[in-house]
Design brief:
Blueprint: E1 6-12, H1 19-30, E2 36-42, E3 58-60, H2 70-80, E4 84-88, H3 90-100, E5 107-111, H4 116-119, H5 129-139, E6 144-147, H6 150-160, E7 167-169, E8 191-196, H7 205-212, E9 219-224, H8 230-239, E10 246-249, H9 255-260, E11 264-267, H10 276-284, E12 288-291, E13 307-310, H11 313-321, H12 328-339, H13 341-364
Parallel strand pairs: 1-2, 1-4, 2-3, 4-5, 5-6, 6-7, 8-9, 8-11, 9-10, 11-12, 12-13
């Protein structure tokens, strides 16, 4: 491997705006160009591209569904001859598990994005035996899985029978260069509260609204994000008589500004892979109150340092009614010391080098 650049294909279904997409784009653009050649492969097209600048090393397969892209994926991998193929999102990871059988000399990695044990039981039909059997079978054909948190790692072992030795926990980086606010905007008059995320059941917006309807302090609540539960969430705000205190923004490219102007980030999620919006809130110096649920939340929130982890709605209400002044720099430093992009990029680079070296040694024996 001396003096040889490792070639990596990063594969993603679409470039709609989301955390998984942003992390993979960031990796493909910023990983060391001295040691790696990177190519981003998008299963779909660039019509729904939610990102402005992607660089030149992007190929669109123009397939409507991941499963229909298999012939194109095989052809692309055969042409590019990468050392590593890295995909993200569970359904694509399974397809890459299938394809990996054809390329034994290439290292195939899947990047998980959710706690499947929780996510699969929220508003979904139970998977059939055969669906689960083949899902597990082909996922296990991958050489490695990247998990964003310890809980996700344990989930993959328990649910998919994936070996601990084939799992690597790599957190998400703080990808943008956020400006930490100089002082807390908190006043005694009104609390400016915010939640950023898709409007889906697992994100727990409805229980946040219930909590807000019961707090004693005056507040203004901003929800940024869109999704299938939009009407239900807005309707519930009206039913709870807090709709005039609630502001919904489907999409904005100024999320950091809204986070910086807020007193506290509220996370009601039932489960999280690794909550990027919460991480970014802390990065700008805005503390968070979040439920202690499966996923990476507990690896970000430090009680009394950058917010609070709670187990009950009453705990959540109590913290909102008695929210202390947090020092923005302390809040920001608490996440940058662990999730700064230089730290996470280095962790990925070392992991890639290590597994290629491991494979070379194994092939010699």
């Amino acid at each position: 491997m001396k003096n040889k650049k490792l070639k990596i294909l990063y594969i993603i279904p679409t470039l709609t705006f989301g955390g998984a997409e942003r992390v993979l784009i960031y990796l493909s653009q910023n990983i060391s160009k001295i040691h790696f050649n990177s190519e981003l492969i998008v299963i779909g097209n660039n019509v729904s591209n939610g990102f402005d600048e992607l660089g030149q090393n992007v190929t669109y397969l123009n397939s409507k569904r991941v499963i229909k892209s298999i012939p194109k994926l095989i052809k692309t991998i055969k042409q590019e001859k990468p050392d590593i193929v890295l995909g993200t999102l569970s359904h694509l990871n399974v397809i890459l598990g299938v394809i990996s059988i054809l390329f034994p000399k290439i290292i195939f990695i899947g990047r998980q994005t959710s706690i499947a044990k929780v996510y699969n039981n929220i508003g979904k039909k139970k998977k059939s035996y055969w669906h689960s059997y083949f899902f597990n079978l082909f996922l296990n054909k991958l050489d490695y899985l990247i998990c964003q948190s310890k809980d996700m790692s344990n989930d993959c072992v328990d649910l998919f029978n994936f070996k601990h030795s084939k799992i690597k926990v790599l957190h998400n980086p703080i990808t943008d260069s956020f400006i930490t606010k100089t002082k807390s905007p908190k006043t005694s008059e009104i609390l400016n509260l915010i939640t950023v995320g898709r409007l889906v059941e697992v994100k727990g917006h409805l229980r946040i609204l219930k909590i807000l309807s019961e707090i004693k302090v005056p507040f203004s609540y901003t929800i940024i994000g869109d999704g299938p539960l939009r009407e239900e969430i807005l309707s519930e705000a009206k039913n709870l008589n807090i709709d005039k205190k609630t502001n919904h923004i489907p999409y904005t490219n100024k999320v950091a500004d809204y986070l910086s102007e807020s007193d506290c980030f509220l996370q009601g999620s039932l489960s999280e892979g690794f909550p990027n919006a919460l991480l970014e809130s802390c990065a700008v110096g805005t503390p968070a109150i979040a439920f202690d649920v499966p996923g990476g939340t507990k690896e970000i929130v430090e009680n009394g340092i950058n917010g609070f982890l709670v187990k009950t709605e009453n705990e959540f209400i109590n913290h909102l009614n008695n929210l202390p002044d947090f020092d923005p720099k302390t809040v920001s430093d608490s996440v940058y010391k662990k999730f700064d992009k230089k730290i996470i990029l280095n962790n990925y680079e070392e992991f890639f080098k290590e597994i290629v070296k491991r494979k070379e040694v194994a092939e010699k024996h």
